Amino acid sequence: MKAQIEKLTSDSNSWISITYCKVLSKGRKALILKSSFLVGPFSGQLPLRASSIDIHPNAKWAQNGITVAGGNGSSSGTNQLYWPYGLYVDDDQTIYVADYANDRIVEWKSGATNGKVVAGGNGEGNGAHQLNYPYDVVIDKESDSFIISDWMNDRVVRWPRQNGTRGETIISNIACFGLTMDDNGFLYVVDERKHEVRRYKIGDTQGTVVAGGNGEGNRLDQLSNPHYVFVDRDHSVYVSDCYNDRVMKWEERAKQGIVVAGGQGEGNSLTQLNLPQGVVVDQLGTVYVADSWNHRIMRWPKGATQGSVIVGRNGYGARSNQLNSPIGLSFDRHGNLYVVDYWNNRVQKFNIV
After folding, report:
1. Burial of 320 (0-12, 13-18, 19+ CB in 10 A)
2. CB-count exposure of residue 130 (10 Å: 0-12, 13-18, 19+)
3. Rounded Cα–Cα distance for residues 138 and 147 (Å)
4. 3-state secondary structure of 296
5. Residues 301, 297, 94, 169, CA torsion sign
6. Model's pTM, two decimal places?
7. Coil vs helix vs strand at 53
8. Is the pLDDT reported for residue 48 higher than 70?
9. Which string of b and e fits 79-107 if b means at least 16 CB within 10 Å?
10. Quick one: which of 85, 311, 94 has its CA closest to 177?
C-alpha cells in the first residue's frame, strides 16, 4: 500500500468511521471506495469532453492552479466537497462535480465561492431522489438533463436540470464508473466490475461492448478496473485502464485496443503511469491523462513512447502548484484545464498561457 494512503487514512477519522468505505487493493495499489464488494449530444457544438478542443501541440499552462470549487475541507457545506471524482465543464465555464461522499452533484458557476446542489444531496440511499456515491456526470443537452453514474446503486440516472427533484434510472445492474456521450447522442459507460465499456442508444438498456469485455487482464483485448472514458470524433474509445497503468484506444468495431499512454508498468518515469484516471483527447490525438498516484497531469502526443508533465511537478500536497491524487479531468472551450484534486477536496483550474 502507498505511504501516502497509509498516512491519509490514518489521519482521516471519517474514513475509519464509514463502514461501507474500504481500500480496494491489488498488489501495491489501493483505492478508497464505498463498496460492499469490491457530453451532451451535438447541438451546435460538440460536448467539451469530446475532442472539440483545439489545443496547440506546444501549449503550456500556468503551474499554479486556481481553486474554482471546494478547497474548504471535507464536509457537506455549500462551499465544500468531500472526495470529489468526475466533473463536466459547460460552455459558460460552469462546472458540475460528482461530490462522491456527499451523494450529490454540485454546480459551481464561474467565479462562485459556493456551489449549488443540482442532483441528490438527500442522504445516501436508493430512492429516486437520492444518489449513493456518484462517480461521474455529463450533460445531455438534447433532453436538458444530467446523466449520472450512481455507482453504489448500480445504476445510471437521468436527472432533469430544470428544478429536478428526482432521477429516472435508465441503466440498471451496472458497476458504473466514468461515462460520456458522443456527437450522435450515444452514451458510453464504464462497467468496472465487468472490465468493459458499453455504448447505449437512448432507450437501450443492454448496450454494446466497445472496449474490453474479455475478463480482467492485461492483454490488448482486456482491461483491469477501467475508470474513465473519452470518445473522439471518429468514435474511437479511450479508456483509463487503471490497474494496468495505461490508457487504451479502441477504434470503432475493433477487437482489441492500442496502448496510447503508459503500459510500461507502475512507476513515475515519463514512460509510465500510476493509477491513471480522467482522460481527454484533443483534435491531434494527443492524450491528456490524470496520472493519479504520481500527482500530475501528463500529455502524450499521438504515437509517442513517453509523455510530458504539464502540471503537478512538485509532489503531492495542498499548495496551488501541487495536486494530491488528481482524478477528474476536463478543458473549457478556451483550453483552460480543470482537475479534480481528490484528497484536497477541490477543483483546480490551470489557465492556458
Report:
1. middle
2. buried
3. 5
4. strand
5. positive
6. 0.88
7. coil
8. no
9. ebbbbbbbbbbbeebbbbbbbbbbbbbbb
10. 85
Enumerate the H helices of the chain as residue ranges. 3-11, 13-17
Q: How far are the Cα atoms of 1, 31, 36, 239 from residue 27, in angstroms, in the given order?
A: 8, 12, 20, 21
| Distance (Å, whole) CA 200 – CA 188 | 6
Using the 8-state DSSP alphabet, how is residue 4 labeled?
A: H
In the chain, where the domains are located: 4-39, 66-350
Coil, strand or helix at 241: strand
Q: What is the pLDDT of residues 215-255, one digit of tens each?
A: 999 999 999 999 999 999 999 999 999 999 999 999 999 99
Percent of the chain with pLDDT over 70: 85
pLDDT for 278 equals 98
pLDDT mean over 321-350: 97
Q: What pLDDT does residue 15 have?
A: 32
Q: What architecture (CATH level 2) is domain 66-350? A: 6 Propeller (2.120)
Longest distance between any two alpha carbons in the chain, whole Å: 49
Sequence-ordered list of residues with C-beta below 8 angstroms from that of 163, at least 6 positions apart, any chain: none
Place of cell 501541487: 322
Neighbour-count burial for 250-271, b at 16+ CB within 10 Å, e otherwise: bbeeeeebeebbbbbebeeeeb
What single DSSP character describes residue 216? B
Q: Are 343 and 325 a contacting pair, CB within 8 Å?
A: yes
Q: From CA 32, how far away is CA 183, in angstroms rounded?
A: 33
Q: How many CA atoms lie within 13 A of 194 on its CB side?
A: 17
CA distance 153 to 175: 8
Which residues does 62 contact at the CB level (< 8 Å), separation at least 6?
350, 351, 352, 353
Phi, psi (deg, nearest 5) at residue 100: -50, -60
Residues 6+ apart with CB under 8 A from 11: none
- DSSP of 320-351: TT-BSSEEEEEE-TT--EEEEEGGGTEEEEE-
CB contact at 8 A, 201 and 210? no
* Amino acid of residue 226: P
